[in-house]
Design a protein that fits this description.
The protein has 463 residues and is of the alpha+beta class. The chain has 7 helices and 14 strands. The chain folds into 3 domains: 3-151, PAS domain (Beta-Lactamase), CATH 3.30.450.20; 214-297, Helix Hairpins; 305-452, Heat Shock Protein 90 (2-Layer Sandwich). Residues 456-463 have low confidence and may be disordered. The chain binds adenosine-5'-diphosphate.
Length: 463
């Protein structure tokens, strides 16, 4: 059963239920009020009659003056003596000589009852007539309840009709209101179906209502999810394209060299060297990709311990001294003793990536300057080079996988795959730190690594 039908039924039944309870209360209350009014009239009549009743010297009923009811009067009176004989009746009762209420004749207190005589509904009162404690007879007064019956039945039909009409109206109005409220949900379903049929993640659900109501929030989050999915999908496609592109060149070189060896029918060491070089490159790339995948999914195995960042920096500089040679001058402008909590091998990898980049991209007679200091509870490492800088349009993408600034895209033996900075970004990220880059074309580039100092309250991500 659809949500719309379920809600419509619920509202109709709710409206019907409320009106039913209300109607029953009104019906019962009106009935009680009307009967009370009739009972009051009966009581008053019995009082009038009793006040006009005389008893003789032996204590028997003697004179009863009955009110002069005309035939159209709705009040019937009977006076019965103690032996159960009819003593007197009102004129309008005619020849009817049976008790108006036979059980009422035995009552010792005034009693009201509903009786049916010759298909007429009557309300009766039976009042015992006493001299002292001695019963000398019973006075019975009755009145027809036809009016009450018809008022009750009219009221019953009015209330029943009102309940049914209200249920119908509640059903119709909720059908339309719920239909309107659920319309955006149908739009969500339609769009979701279109997306899955057309394989088009660029579609969004149009919504013109308030963004603060439940439907608005649902559509907003659905559109946000679509946007994320679209970006993820695009990045996955770009990633596949990048990997294929990076694989193609070394594979072409390997294949060409293998063909050459086969053609020459002798081992050519130059070709073998080239094959080895390309295989090494491929191995490096696969290793980097694996590392990146592990880092991005938070599954990179890390061995956290206190690391002397200053010692690590000096070690890396010693290792890379050869790469800088006489071409690039490595200069330490400031070095504090800094201890961080981290995986020494991974942090070293970050330093090697950044420093080798700085050396690699800085032309001859350039300088790379290092500055390691403490700022509040953070360690700050700056690596500043006097290289060509990174174009402003490339800067926001520099930490993306396979991203290489346009100028450095020309492939050389030393050129990387554009994975080094991504790896550095993720490693610093899982150490609870951050990495920043500032660059101006022609002026040089500065990378700054922030890491939480040891002994601070900072929570570190551990694997
Ligand atoms: P690669 O292995 O290609 O160097 P990276 O991820 O380490 O990959 O760097 C991405 C790109 O960022 C590089 O291709 C280069 O264009 C640019 N880059 C990185 N460091 C520097 C730097 N110090 N000076 C100029 N450009 C840089």
């Amino acid at each position: 059963m659809s949500l719309r039908i379920r809600f419509t039924l619920l509202y109709s039944l709710l409206a019907g239920g409320i009106l039913l309870i209300f109607g029953t209360a009104v019906y019962v209350l009106v009935g009680i009020l009307l009967i009370n009014q009739v009972d009051d009239t009966l009581t008053q009549t019995t009082r009038d009659i009793v006040s006009n009743t005389r008893i003789d010297s032996v204590g028997e009923l003697s004179v009863i003056i009955l009110p002069k009811f005309n035939f159209t009067s709705n009040l019937f009176v009977q006076v019965w003596d103690a032996n159960g004989n009819l003593h007197s009746t009102s004129q309008n009762i005619g020849g009817y000589n049976l008790p108006l209420d036979s059980t009422g004749l035995e009552a010792s207190l005034p009693v009201y009852r509903d009786v049916t005589i010759q298909q007429a509904h009557l309300r009766t009162i039976s009042v015992p007539l006493l001299v002292g404690d001695r019963p000398i007879g019973t006075l019975q007064v009755a009145t027809s309840t036809d009016l009450i019956d018809s008022i009750r039945s009219i009221l019953f039909y009015i209330l029943l009709g009102t309940t049914l009409i209200s249920m119908f109206l509640a059903g119709i109005s909720s059908w339309f209101v719920i239909g309107q409220a659920l319309a955006p949900l149908n739009m969500v379903t339609d769009t979701a179906l279109q997306i899955s049929h057309a394989n088009d993640l660029s579609r969004r659900i149009p919504y013109h209502g308030s963004e603060k109501d439940e439907i608005g929030l649902l559509i907003l989050s659905f559109n946000e999810t679509l946007e994320r999915l679209e970006k993820l999908f695009a990045s996955q496609q770009r990633f596949l394209a990048d990997v294929s592109h990076e694989l193609r060149t070394p594979l072409t070189v390997i294949k060409a060299n293998a063909d050459l060896i086969r053609m020459m029918k002798e081992v050519d060491f130059e070709s073998l060297d080239s094959i080895k070089e390309e295989t090494d490159r491929l191995t490096r790339m696969v290793g980097d990709l694996l590392l990146l995948a592990q880092a991005e999914s938070g599954k990179l195995p890390l061995n956290f311990k206190p690391v002397e960042l200053d010692t690590l920096l000096l070690d890396v500089l010693k290792d890379l001294h050869l790469l800088a040679g006489d071409r690039v001058q490595l200069k330490i402008s400031e070095i504090d003793q800094v201890q961080v909590n981290g995986d020494a091998d991974r942090l070293k990898q970050v330093l090697v990536n950044l420093i080798s980049n700085a050396i690699k991209y800085t032309p001859g007679a350039g300088t790379v300057t290092f500055e390691l200091s403490k700022v509040e509870n953070q360690s700050k490492l700056r690596i500043r080079d006097t290289g060509p800088g990174i174009p402003a349009e490339d800067l926001p993408h520099i930490f993306e996988r396979f991203y290489r600034a346009e100028k450095s895209r020309t492939r050389s033996k030393t050129s990387g795959f554009g994975l080094g900075l991504s790896i550095a970004y993720w490693i610093i990220n899982i150490h609870g730190g951050s990495i920043e880059v500032e660059s101006q074309e022609g002026q040089g580039t500065t990378f700054t690594i922030w890491l939480p100092l040891i002994n601070t309250e900072t929570t570190l991500v551990e694997d």
